[in-house]
Amino acid sequence: MQKKLLMGFLLEVIQDAEVWLALKPLTDAERESFLHQIPPPVRYWYEYLFPRWFTEQDNKFYIWKQKLRSGEFSQDDAEVIDVIAQNIKSRQGSVVQRYVADFSMATDAIVSSPTGKPLCVQVTSMSDEFSEYKYEEWKRTLQAWEIERGIFVSYNPGKEAFVRELVNVVLHNSNHLADYKYLKFSF
């Protein structure tokens, strides 16, 4: 019970694996019927990202596995990401947050507008001037996982309106960002 993050991660992977395994024996038509009933970020997770992570080598696994086991891992931006997710949902958008996406794919949330495509979002409170290296690492990670589109956001926690601005940018880019584009924003 002391390692709640580890336990949460394990439960999440088990649940995701159960859904993924339940989809495997379905016919193509049955699978498509099911997947078209769920929000685009959830579909993207189960149809593409989770199976890739489960079946391919995760180059970051050895790093975050040890941190997770030892209790070193912290989610400094968790509250901010939850507020962002709530704002996206209040505007009829969809959000998926998964430990695997965060740890391995440098993605705090997979989001979409009501009519948009899934978009991977990474949020950091690191100032814009110091976040360039982190942005480049993030971009390489997304490209390595063949993630189609992403937004990296550096924010100032002292600025009150950044959540509204960020949500506007995310929902806009869910509708308009071209495939294999990775943008950086600073608020």
In terms of topology, how is this protein built?
Layout: H1 4-23, H2 28-35, H3 40-55, H4 61-70, H5 78-90, E1 94-96, H6 99-105, E2 109-112, E3 119-124, H7 132-144, E4 149-154, H8 162-176, E5 181-186
Parallel strand pairs: 3-4, 4-5
Antiparallel strand pairs: 1-2, 2-3
- The CATH architecture designation is 3-Layer(aba) Sandwich
C-alpha geometry: globular
- H/E element sequence: HHHHHEHEEHEHE
- Strand content is 5-15%
Query: CATH fold name, please?
Result: Trna Endonuclease, Chain: A, domain 1
Class by SSE composition: alpha/beta
Number of helices: 8
**How many discrete structural domains?**
1
Query: Helicity range of the residues?
Result: 40-55%
Notes on the structure:
The protein has eight helices and five strands. Helix 1 (4-23) crosses helix 3 (40-55) and helix 5 (78-90) packs across helix 8. With 187 residues, the chain is an alpha/beta fold. It has one domain (4-186): Trna Endonuclease, Chain: A, domain 1. A five-stranded mixed sheet has the order 1-2-3-4-5, sandwiched between helices. 34% of the residues are buried. The model has no long low-confidence stretch (mean pLDDT 89). The chain starts with a helix and ends with a strand. The protein has helices at 4-23, 28-35, 40-55, 61-70, 78-90, 99-105, 132-144, 162-176, and strands at residues 94-96, 109-112, 119-124, 149-154, 181-186.
